[in-house]
Description:
Blueprint (H helix, E strand, L loop, with lengths): L5 H14 L4 E10 L9 E5 L4 E3 L7 H10 L18 E5 L1 H7 L6 E9 L6 H8 L4 E6 L5 E5 L10 E3 L3 E6 L4 E5 L3 H12 L3 E5 L3 H6 L7 E2 L3 H8 L5 E5 L4 H11 L6 E4 L3 H13 L4 H5 L14 H17 L2
Parallel strand pairs: 10-11, 10-13, 11-12, 13-14
Antiparallel strand pairs: 1-2, 1-5, 2-3, 4-5, 6-7, 6-9, 8-9
Amino acid sequence: xxxxxxxxxxxxxxxxxxxxxxxxxxxxxxxxxxxxxxxxxxxxxxxxxxxxxxxxxxxxxxxxxxxxxxxxxxxxxxxxxxxxxxxxxxxxxxxxxxxxxxxxxxxxxxxxxxxxxxxxxxxxxxxxxxxxxxxxxxxxxxxxxxxxxxxxxxxxxxxxxxxxxxxxxxxxxxxxxxxxxxxxxxxxxxxxxxxxxxxxxxxxxxxxxxxxxxxxxxxxxxxxxxxxxxxxxxxxxxxxxxxxxxxxxxxxxxxxxxxxxxxxxxxxxxxxxxxxxxxxxxxxxxxxxxxxxxxxxxxxxxxxxxxxxxxxxxxxxxxxxxxxxxx
Length: 327
């Protein structure tokens, strides 16, 4: 099974459960206060018999939610929530007193929307779009329970991720962050899978036929175009990262020549410190400014003593997290 990000896993499992005849509740974090551990837009799904996938609080209140759904499946649920089969939306706000009772040790507060899923059609279209790695916006009317799905162009990565106004919930499914990996070797495969789990849209570019043919991740195709063209077309904005992982200057440098002057938030290249110094000299000779060259992360990733391909991939995605979080 390929690695999925958290939203894809929740949607797919929820669809499978509903298709098997279970009543399922799709739960969305719509507001948070204080130090709530999960951001707005986080989702989980709870089956009527208590099975759960996803997270709305980092584990703090899930136990109580599951117990209440099991106990009061056809009755009045937590704080007046109807958790029966009526297709409507209810909300739960966890205040300070409830937080202590639920074990929300962080002391934050959150408001949740509960959406009963009673038929596969309630979520089938979203599950299909997620499986196809499409970016879609799902809007739910809280008064009627009616949901709609709208395609979002992949080129616009700055789309609003989440919106809630008390009447509608609007959530973007599909990443608004992208990683372009140059090279389709073993390191790229690990990096691609880890980045996918972190909600990045992943693209791989490698014009070398042998590497393309050996690629083993079906949902991430290999672009056969020149690396510089791939950067220009797919990864030159501030929501993109470019990872040059071929260890071949003829390919990596082509990507770097376009990525370093761009708005990409992270540009890194594989290689030792010695190779990094040589690469900087080459790039200066090819016309890049000193400021542009200094943007290059090399050796790529965090220094965690990594040696194997999997360890290096961990160091790369960890650095992506650090840089992206820092803004």
